[in-house]
Amino acid sequence: MNPSSSALLATQGLYFNFGKRPILHDVNLLVEPGSIYGFLGPNGAGKSTTMRLLLGLLRPAAGSVQLFGHDLARHRVAALGRVGALIENPSLYDHLSGRENVEATRRLRGIAAHRTAEVLALVGLTDNAHRAAKEYSLGMRQRLGLAIALLSDPDLLLLDEPTNGLDPNGIIEMRELLRHLREEHGKTIVVSSHLINEIEKVATHVGVIQQGRLVFQGSLPDLQRLQTGRARLVLETEDADTCRNLLPRLLAGATLVGAGTLWLPWISKEQTAELAAALTSAGQPLYGLRLEQPSLEDTFLHLTEAKAELVR
Q1: Which are the contacts of 24, defined by CB distance < 8 A and separation ≥ 6?
Q2: Helix (H) or strand (E) run with residue 303 in it
Q3: What is the pLDDT of residues 25-57, one digit of tens each?
Q4: Could you identify which of 16, 94, 98, 175 might form a hypothetical disulfide with 134, taking C-beta atoms 3.0 to 4.6 angstroms apart as the criterion?
Q5: CATH number, domain containing residue 251
């Protein structure tokens, strides 16, 4: 069975060029129903270009976009009718109130009148709906843009850097809102960002893009398991070199980083226990033996830097 057949959104062999300059190279996204897909990458990696391709705002040089099991190029109107989007900063009428901004789009699209109050309540703007948009904070403007994107009650939301420029409170509010939309309203959400720490707190799945290439795709636990593969034991003793000579089998692959400190790749809990027992039997003082794992941010940087070196 083709894995893309069950996906809400999928791309196959997606390429894009600006003139003669290649931007995207064979991007194959897979977004499952009911997920929050964190689309991660450094600035300039191709996130916004990909989001525009997913909305049919740009035409790929090669490849295809499938939404709800249908090819976007052939079913554009029907597919995009089930999609809400917030790309970069929302376009608002600053002289109009929050409610009037939502109403303008609702009437233009012929959406039922009751949706205005519903989406304003959903994003927490009911009490400020009468205020002019020019009086809104950046976080409130983002939520108003999201309210407009939610008017048609879409199945899929595409959000490009929705926390960009927000203060800590605004970031927390947006994070909680996205979680609420998924858990209580069944929305599938693709959210692009360059902030791994924020995506970690809200995403169920992650795709990492670097220089237009998808270098990782999987569930958040899949990404976290990459950390374990790069974990190390830090051994602190009196004379690290002596310990290496006494225990060549256990410490042959260790790196000397100080007179009393060794690093070695972590393999298992059993390895740790065996090493501690062997040091004690050899009469060597054991001042510390701890596991160090890279943070998700370190893993993200490792993925993107490794791909950058590979394509040079």
Answers
A1: 14, 15, 16, 46, 49, 50, 53, 60, 212
A2: helix 296-310
A3: 999 999 999 999 999 988 888 999 999 999 999
A4: 94
A5: 3.30.70
- Answer yes or no: do 159 and 78 share one domain: yes
Q: Does some domain include residue 115?
A: no
* 253-265: pLDDT as tens digits: 898 888 999 998 8
Q: Model's pTM, two decimal places?
A: 0.78
Give me the number of domains the chain comprises: 2
As to burial, measured by CB atoms within 10 angstroms (0-12 exposed, 13-18 middle, 19+ buried), residue 189 is: buried
Classify residue 137: in a domain, yes or no.
no
CATH number for the domain including 185?
3.40.50.300
Q: What is the pLDDT of residues 271-299, one digit of tens each?
A: 889 999 999 999 999 999 988 876 667 77
Pairwise CA distance, residues 308 & 284, whole Å: 43
